[in-house]
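Hey team,

Filing this mostly as a record. A colleague (T.K.) asked me to run one chain through the structure pipeline before their review meeting, and I want the input and output archived in the tracker in case anyone asks later how it was produced. No errors, nothing strange. Just documentation.

Input sequence:
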Amino acid sequence: MAEARIPGGAPDPAAAPAPAGAPAPGPADATGGLDATALDEAVAFTSDLIRIDTTNRGGGDCRERPAAEYVAERLAAAGLEPTLLERTPGRTNVVARIAGTDPAADALLVHGHLDVVPAEAADWTVHPFSGEVRDGVVWGRGAIDMKNMDAMILAVVRAWARAGVRPRRDIVLAFTADEEASADDGSGFLADRHAALFEGCTEGVSESGAFTFHAGDGLSLYPIAAGERGTGWLKLTAEGKAGHGSKVNPSNAVTRLAAAVSRIGAHEWPVRLTPTVRAALTELAALHGFDADLDAPGFDVDELLAKLGPSAALVAPTVRNSSNPTMLEAGYKVNVIPGHATAFIDGRTVPGGEEEFRATLDRLTGPGVNWEYHHREVALQAPVDSPTFAKMRAAVERFDPGAHAVPYSMSGGTDAKQFSRLGITGYGFSPLKLPVGFDYQALFHGVDERVPVEALHFGARVLDHYLRTA
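Output structure:
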């Protein structure tokens, strides 16, 4: 483990923090109080961070330190004192705290990860690590997931330093390593070994929420995440009798494994509606002009989803557990029956659905096949009737009048899972205003990942307003 602290700098008097106890001024105008420099920095920082290749290939194959140093230098220039923390050399996290004006208020965690998934340059229109700004769009791996949010955070806190703004509550900033794998070198390490840095934090905000979702007929939604399905990545192992490929073999490990994988992939999981998903279905139905009685006898969630049109995509992945086969490994020669075979399953569980998940896997794997967790994390829920959710909703709708912020649950997971060990309730809130036809969700881990410049400007303004009032 390594730890380093970059002392706060004061490049000019305007960058110094406001005196203790100074009120946090509200937005100065319709731009949310941000100056033009902040909007430019949100774009420039996104581009710069994309150019720092932090590809996480799993198994420890990643180096976030250059990006962490970039972040820390810009925080220090804003008068903060960022701390760099590593469990493994090169796998660097950055944590800093902004003191609020109300010492009695609970602190808020604002976090983003620095690593990205791999990208094959030959498949892209623009090189994935160019950070090129073309036709009003920033291109590259991390433009959506999630160097854009990292950049907006930096731009906002630097604007605060220039203007002498302090938020009401303490804000802890965390830029993490390893989110795209196990998080063992990132948020897991921070939660387990450096909990004191997050003292007082009761809530947190991060990725995958408050983006424009065009639901058709002019209806614009901003789904704010108030839940995540749990992670159950599984390793299946089938044992059998090795032998010659020309012989009959009733103990063929590949056959056993293939049958188990087929059963798991074809399984239809029962509906399990969590409070967050129920709230999402109820609000979406109302916005589409009809009532939904989720407790009515014979209620069929799939019929309701069909009536929601494009909006159904926000909810459909989270009404059930799921289990998708993703990897198979067996054998070494075509005429040799191997003695064992393995497979991997990407399992996800709704809150409260883990016991059912385990029991179902025991049944579906069948004789001769064992399973174990390759990686496991909890499912999360956050209240949608909280003051925090209301303020996020208000911030989005302030800057896009006529749009509607709605709750939803993520089908996947984020660093909020690890920070929940510290009692921190997590929300997905990384605001972006996106044009019609821009498929935000398809760009996560996809080819030609990109983000419009105007979306970054909007996001920085919304984030600034929310964090001032949180």
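Quick notes for T.K.: The longest helix spans residues 147-163. Residues 321 and 349 are 5 Å apart (CA to CA).
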